[in-house]
Each structure stands twice: as C-alpha cells, then as structure tokens.
Amino acid sequence: MRGAVMYAPGDVRVEEREDARLVEPTDAVLRLSAACVCGSDLWPYRGIEPVGGATPMGHEYVGVVEQVGGAVKGISPGQFVVGSFFASDNTCEICRSGYQPSCPYSVIMGSIGTQAELVRVPHADGTLVPTPAMPPADMIPGLLAASDVLGTGWFGAVAAEVGPGKAVAVVGDGAVGLLAVLAAKQLGAERIIAMSRHEPRQRLAREFGASDIVTERGNEGVTRVHELTGGFGAHSVVEAVGTQESMMQAIRSARPGGHVGYVGVAHDVSLPGVELFFSHVHLHGGPAPVRRFLPELIDRIWKREIDPGKVFDLELPLDQAAEAYRAMDERRAIKALLTP
Ligand SMILES: [Zn+2]
Fold first, then answer.
1. Which domains does the chain have, with CATH numbers?
2. pLDDT tens, 177-205?
3. Per-residue pLDDT tens for 148-159?
4. How many A from CA of 155 to the centre of ligand 1?
5. CA of 287 to the centre of ligand 1 (A)
C-alpha cells in the first residue's frame, strides 16, 4: 500500500509501505476513503518536535472496513466507519467516564499512520463508530473532520463549559479553533469571539457562528476580549494553539470563575503559579476524547445540521502529501484532505 512517511523536518514522501493487516484479534483493517494533514503534524514538519527516523504519518481517518479480527463483535466488513485518533477499548472505567485517550490500553493512531491506503485500527469495537449507511461523497470531509478536529474543537468547548447565554472566546484560527466556534454555536453560546488575523479564516469563523472577530494578539487581544464582555472577560475560552503566548492569552481572556478548555498540544508552556492562583480560572483540557462525542457528531453531520468539512480548503491525491504539508505550513491552506 502507499502511505506518507516523514524522514526529517520538511521531508514527507509517499512510498510503498507494508500492507496494513490484522495483528490482534480485536483489530480491524480499513480501506481509507479520505485522510488529511493535521496542524499537529506540522510540529515535527517544522522541526519543533523531533522526527525519529522514517515515520509513518497521519492519525485522522474514515473508511470502509475490509477485515476484522476474530474477537470483533460490533463492526463488520463493508461498514463505513469513523474512528478517533486514539484507539481505546471503550469499556474500562476511564473510557466509561469519557476520557478514552487515557484508557490504559489506548493506542495513538499517529503511531500507525493513517495517511495511507489501508490502516490497522486496534480495539475496533471500542474505537470505531459506523455511519447509518454508506455516506454520500460530499459528506465524507465532514465525517473525516469528526475523527479529530471537530471532536477536538467540541471537547475544547465542552471543557470550557460553553453553554446558553455565555460569552466565548476562541484563541487560534486553525481547523480546531474554527470548529470550536462551530461547537460553541451549537452548544448555545450567546457571543462568540474568534481571535484571528487571517481574512479567509475570519470568514469561515463568521460562517460557523462567530459574532465578533478580534485581530489583536497577546495582551492587546486580551484587552479587546474584556472590552467586548463588559470588562469582565469571557465565561469560556478555548485555547487551540499550544504555545506560551496562546495559553496566557486564553487564561487572561477568561473572567474570574470562567473556564479555559485547552486543546492545542502544549509546547514549552509553563504557567505562572501566582497569577493562576489569583485568576480564579478553571483549566481543563488535553488530548480530546473524540470517541465520547463521535455518535452525536456523526448524527449532526448525517442530518446536515453542521458541515465541519468546510475546513478542508485543499484536496490533493495522497501521492501529493508533500504539497499538502507545504501548503499548510505556509498557511496557504487551513486543512488539506488527501484522497487515496
Ligand atoms: Zn479503556
């Protein structure tokens, strides 16, 4: 099968890899209908995270089940399925409490690499959620978004306790930030402030439900959020970047008693204890338990209540994965979809 492999920062190649096959009796093998490049794939691409030799890439996926292991009961060949970027058994105490990425048996799909024609999914029964039928082609990007960026933006909003009547600020205008705006709208927020200085992303944020756009960053951005929220700060802030600046911007944009949902993968973030102590801000976040939200998200997409697939503004054949990475790195594309 063909698959994308990163050799070094800036060096992504599509090459022949060993075919995905069943390893454990709880596995499934999928033929991917679409894959994509994630903002988090850009960390190693930019050399901010190390690349440990030739590394298969990708962790978002939708596709048709080709094979299941002997212990798989709820998933069958021929079904169209969506899975989370963490495989998990979905039966242990941690999974049942809604924190599937922390399942003691979890497997991060990035270690398997889903930017490929085929993929092995561990814990198929726990990880995969079938759609009601074979989806129409125009729905596939939305379902693919549910696999990570929508689920992550949704978790950011839930972790920030977004709800009716609340003022929400979203730090970060990548696909996750934009879909956190969509989630905030769906969860009934009254005011949604998107922090973005890129015109095409501002437009999409508005389309997804943003009521205000703040272009300033850092403390100037914080001041703008306070001005827009009666001087108090937002009730809920979603942090969708993962840098020191974005994290502090998020914490300082929240009002006392407010909540920050942080879903940007933290890189060299350290929090000042005294400021945190006096802020009275709740912090909750981490790798999103996408599996918790998948049935509801698939249902909303299936009913065409939401179209998170709009974050894909570039579609390329898998063979051109290198160009997909380049376009996202240079911010020419919000998110690139790859068709095997
Ligand atoms: Zn578990």
1. 2-148+289-339 (3.90.180.10), 152-285 (3.40.50.720)
2. 999 999 999 999 999 999 999 999 999 99
3. 999 999 999 999
4. 18
5. 15
